[in-house]
Amino acid sequence: MQEDNLDREIRILMVEDSPTDAELTERELRKGELSFVSKCVETKDSFLKELEDFSPDIILADYSLPQFDGLSALSIVKERYPDIPFILISGTIGEEVAVEALKAGAIDYILKQRLSRLVHAVRRALSDAEEMIKRKQAENRLIESEKKYKDLVDNALVGVYQTNIKGNILYANEALASIFEFESIEEMMSVSMFERYKNPDDKEVLIEKLKKTGKVTNFEVELLTKTGKTVTVLLSATLEGEVISGMMRDITKRKIAEEQVQYQLQRLTALRNIDMAITASLDVRVTLNVFLDQVTNVLRIDAATVLLLNPNTLNLEYAASRGSAPVHSSTPTCAWEKGMPAALRLNNGLLASLIWPKHWTVSVALHCWLTKGLFPTTPCHLLQKAK
Q1: Closest CA to 2 of 47, 37, 40
Q2: Residues 84 and 190 in one domain
Q3: Any idea what the Cα angle at residue 314 is, between residues 311 and 319, rounded to 5°?
Q4: Would the pTM of this model clear 0.70, i.e. be above it?
Q5: 110-149 pLDDT, tens digit each
Q6: Cα gap 36→122, rounded to integer Å
Q7: pLDDT tens digits, residue range 176-200?
Q8: DSSP code of residue 155
């Protein structure tokens, strides 16, 4: 059936073996000022042919014909063209047959002795059919829209999820499974989302905010992947009833980059402070104290020792330290527990090797060149305790 209004020319297929009855039906329709074109059939083969070729908007069928019948015609229509309205017309139809026809899908039934009801029945049937078509088209558009939305969410670059208030995952997309290093969405959904929180208190804060305001935005939190690796994510979520819907973006690389930039800024600040100390003070001890303060704080090391070159002896002599308690000894090598040597002899311009205990690792070897006083060269050995 074509989607249109009732002012157009309606195509009516009649199943009728009596030309007189068919003419009476058409006359009644014209009295009701319906614009229509009709075809009349009386066998199953001709009915099937016209269903295909004529493409009727509505079917009016006699209940009983010599070679065919209305209920058989109704069965064919409901199987092949369920949207075409079907009205049964008969002069002998009983109440039980009428009820059977309505249950089978007929829109109405009309007695030939009361054709005055026909126009109203046809108008109502066509109007209902058009509304049904519009509703189905709207449903199809909605289904298509939901499919497109689901495809968009499934293939989004950000993690999208739904959980219940207990943390059980109801939905997850590929991006979310990837963030948490799971092989598949199914594997991701087999665990609780709340198990992913590195700090359980963060979960409690999130739930409290959701219960209070119904939503959170840009909530930064550290989560754990399947392998135990920490990732930092930025998530937004809403709470509706017992369901939490949200999305999260992995910002781990961004956080690392920000920390690296901040670290570089701290290093530059430290170098500037050291330079200012060198320029402003004639006291080497003050300069070295500033130097060690800046180095230990910025580089986050456990111990630092400064050795100054004595130009007369070409020995590196202890000058200052942080996190160590050197013993003034002439021994060229020593264990950390026994302290730093008081002096080390340079060999061909290179610093002699030092032996450190196994639980300490050399973190940085930093050479600062001081241009003041009697000590032009200052190697600074920075040590960090192994974790």
Answers
A1: 37
A2: no
A3: 75
A4: no
A5: 888 888 899 999 999 999 988 888 888 888 888 877 777 6
A6: 11
A7: 999 999 999 999 999 999 999 999 9
A8: T
Residue 167 lies in a domain: yes
Report pLDDT digits (tens) over 4-15: 445 678 999 999
Give pLDDT, residue 382.
40
Which of left, alpha, beta for 339 (phi over 0: left; psi -120 to 50: alpha)? Answer: left
158 three-class SS? coil
Percentage of the chain exceeding pLDDT 70: 79
Structural domain span for residue 309: 257-385
Tokens of 381: 């050995």
Q: How far apart are CA 114 and CA 152, in angstroms?
A: 57
Bridge partners of 11, per DSSP, are: 37
Q: Which residues contact 7 (CB under 8 A, 6 or more apart)?
A: 35
CATH of the domain at 40: 3.40.50.2300
Express each pLDDT in 201-220 by its tens digit: 999 999 999 999 999 999 99
Q: Does 354 map to a domain?
A: yes
**CATH number reported for the structural domain that contains residue 280 in this entry:** 3.30.450
Question: Tokens 């010599």 label which residue?
Answer: 66
How far is residue 62's CA from residue 71's CA, in Å, rounded to a whole number? 9
Let me know if residue 148 belongs to a domain.
no
Residues 224 and 294 placed together within one structural domain of the fold: no
Nearest-angstrom CA–CA distance, 331 and 50? 114
Tell me what pLDDT residue 215 has. 92
Beta bridge partners of 161: 172, 246
Q: What are phi and psi of 353, to 5 degrees?
A: -70, 150
The answer to whether residue 147 sits within a structural domain is no
Q: How many domains does the chain have?
A: 3
CA-wise closest residue to 274 among 205, 169, 369: 369
